[in-house]
Every structure is written in structure tokens, then in C-alpha cells.
């Protein structure tokens, strides 16, 4: 399947991320939901041709989700033995792969110090479940993403933040957004694309003012909307791709008003 590349009018975003990676720096991508942080990490992974292991943080994230867990397996002799199944952090370290930690500020602060040695010059970890000391193979890199001011996020621990270099990833708009829609969706009607971009500007403004959630104005939602608009009227496409995901009636009404203004 063809992979879509990360696109941004600010060429330095990708260029700097690539340079930082080659210096083996831990990269923290900072920006709103749906601004393309995961796409940027995936494109970096392709560019350096190193696979990526992903951790999605939440308040339920624990050491097992990061490092792995013990389980009972039956061996070739038919006997049962306790084995350790490596989690994404240990897999990435052992293979010399990229570790991508999404929404790192959604995790409980007490869960992440386990990664301190992984994220500093030592690039090593003592597995608390087995006692094994794991040193990362060359090629191992860490990219994390953070949504600032998002519901449920916590301020990032300073000791952790100090282990990263930061890249601000902002929303794309205008001609660049038009290019993304044309390359990543099925829609090629120039006039409709222009209207969708203007509609998205209104959504962004409402999102900045706190009238609607960031997710409603994300690139992901926009690609879905563009695809759906090729098979149904635009008003219904917006309803299916954006409005029906929202719980709050005021948010839904704000978007219905924006549809009437733009289409």
C-alpha cells in the first residue's frame, strides 16, 4: 500500500526532525490533535528505513504496557514454563528500532520514570520483571508526541521533558492543505476543496475559542469528510465525519452554523 508522506509548508519541520534523529536525539513533537504528528513520525521511520513500535499513552498505561509481561507457555517437551513477552519499549531497544510514544502527557507521571535510563546517554534499562539489563542496539530512537492543553493531559514532568529536543508541529492550511486533500483523499473537485478549506478555517477558529474540540478540526476528520463528499451531499458528509462524533449539542450546532455559512 502506498504510504502518504508528511507535508508541511515549513520545510524545516521535517528537515530538523530528520537531522535530530541522525544525531540520536529524543524528539518531542508538540502540537494540536490532528496536526500530523504521527504522520511525521511514520514518514521519518520510512526515510531512515527503520521500523517503528508505538505506545499509546493513557491514564491506564502501566509498566507492563511499556516493557512487557510474564506468561506461561508450553515448550517443545510439553512442559509449561514462565516466559517474558517483550513490550514495545524492549522490542524497539533490542531490534534497534524507533519507539514512538503518542500522547506522552496522558500517562500518569509515576509510570514514565522507568524510561529515564532509556532516554538518556545510557540508552539502557533493567527489566524489573526479569532482572535483565537491556542496552539499546544502534538505530534505536525515541519520538514522543504531546497534545498541549488537551482534556485529560497533565503537565509533563521537567526531568522527562529535559531529555527531549522539541519540534512544534502546527496545523497546515491554504495551498499545502489543498495538496494534502488531493493526495490523500478521493476528492478532486477544486471548487469543493476550496470550500472545505474555508470551512476548516472556521472550525479552527471555533476550536481556538473553545467552542468545539480540537479533534473536530483535525486533518484526519478533513480527509474523511473529503472522501465522503464524493459519495453523498456535503452536509451529510460533515454530519458523518464530524458532527456525529461530538457529544455536546452546542458544539454540534456551531458546526451546523458553519456548514450553512460555507456551503
TrEMBL record:
<dbReference type="InterPro" id="IPR001270">
    <property type="entry name" value="ClpA/B"/>
</dbReference>
<dbReference type="InterPro" id="IPR003593">
    <property type="entry name" value="AAA+_ATPase"/>
</dbReference>
<feature type="domain" description="AAA+ ATPase">
    <location>
        <begin position="23"/>
        <end position="173"/>
    </location>
</feature>
<dbReference type="InterPro" id="IPR011704">
    <property type="entry name" value="ATPase_dyneun-rel_AAA"/>
</dbReference>
<dbReference type="GO" id="GO:0016887">
    <property type="term" value="F:ATP hydrolysis activity"/>
</dbReference>
<comment type="similarity">
    <text>Belongs to the CbbQ/NirQ/NorQ/GpvN family.</text>
</comment>
<dbReference type="InterPro" id="IPR013615">
    <property type="entry name" value="CbbQ_C"/>
</dbReference>
<keyword id="KW-0067">ATP-binding</keyword>
<dbReference type="Pfam" id="PF07728">
    <property type="entry name" value="AAA_5"/>
</dbReference>
<dbReference type="Pfam" id="PF08406">
    <property type="entry name" value="CbbQ_C"/>
</dbReference>
<keyword id="KW-0547">Nucleotide-binding</keyword>
<dbReference type="InterPro" id="IPR027417">
    <property type="entry name" value="P-loop_NTPase"/>
</dbReference>
<dbReference type="InterPro" id="IPR050764">
    <property type="entry name" value="CbbQ/NirQ/NorQ/GpvN"/>
</dbReference>
<protein>
    <recommendedName>
        <fullName>AAA+ ATPase domain-containing protein</fullName>
    </recommendedName>
</protein>
<dbReference type="GO" id="GO:0005524">
    <property type="term" value="F:ATP binding"/>
</dbReference>
Amino acid at each position: 500500500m502506498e504510504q502518504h508522506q508528511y507535508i508541511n509548508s515549513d520545510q524545516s519541520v521535517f528537515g530538523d526532525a530528520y537531522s535530530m534523529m541522525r544525531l540520536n536525539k529524543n524528539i518531542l513533537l508538540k502540537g494540536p490533535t490532528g496536526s500530523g504528528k504521527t504522520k511525521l513520525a511514520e514518514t521519518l521511520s520510512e526515510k531512515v528505513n527503520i521500523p517503528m513500535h508505538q505506545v499509546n499513552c493513557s491514564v491506564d498505561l502501566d509498566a507492563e504496557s511499556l516493557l512487557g509481561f510474564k506468561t506461561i507457555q508450553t515448550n517443545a517437551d510439553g512442559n509449561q514454563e514462565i516466559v517474558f513477552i517483550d513490550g514495545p519499549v524492549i522490542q524497539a531497544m533490542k531490534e534497534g528500532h524507533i519507539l514512538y510514544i503518542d500522547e506522552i502527557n496522558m500517562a500518569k507521571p509515576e509510570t514514565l520514570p522507568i524510561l529515564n535510563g532509556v532516554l538518556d546517554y545510557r540508552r539502557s534499562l533493567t527489566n524489573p520483571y526479569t532482572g535483565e539489563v537491556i542496552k539499546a542496539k544502534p538505530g534505536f530512537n525515541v519520538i514522543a508526541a504531546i497534545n498541549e492543553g488537551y482534556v485529560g493531559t497533565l503537565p509533563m514532568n521537567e526531568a522527562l521533558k529535559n531529555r527531549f529536543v522539541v519540534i512544534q508541529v502546527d496545523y497546515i492550511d491554504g495551498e499545502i492543505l489543498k495538496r494534502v486533500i488531493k493526495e490523500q483523499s478521493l476528492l478532486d473537485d477544486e471548487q469543493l476543496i476550496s470550500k472545505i478549506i474555508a470551512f476548516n478555517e472556521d472550525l479552527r477558529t471555533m476550536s481556538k475559542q473553545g467552542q468545539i474540540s480540537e479533534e473536530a478540526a483535525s486533518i484526519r476528520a478533513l480527509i474523511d469528510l473529503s472522501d465522503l463528499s464524493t459519495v453523498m451531499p456535503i452536509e451529510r458528509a460533515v454530519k458523518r465525519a464530524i458532527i456525529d462524533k461530538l457529544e455536546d449539542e452546542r458544539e454540534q450546532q456551531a458546526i451546523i452554523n458553519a456548514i450553512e455559512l460555507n456551503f
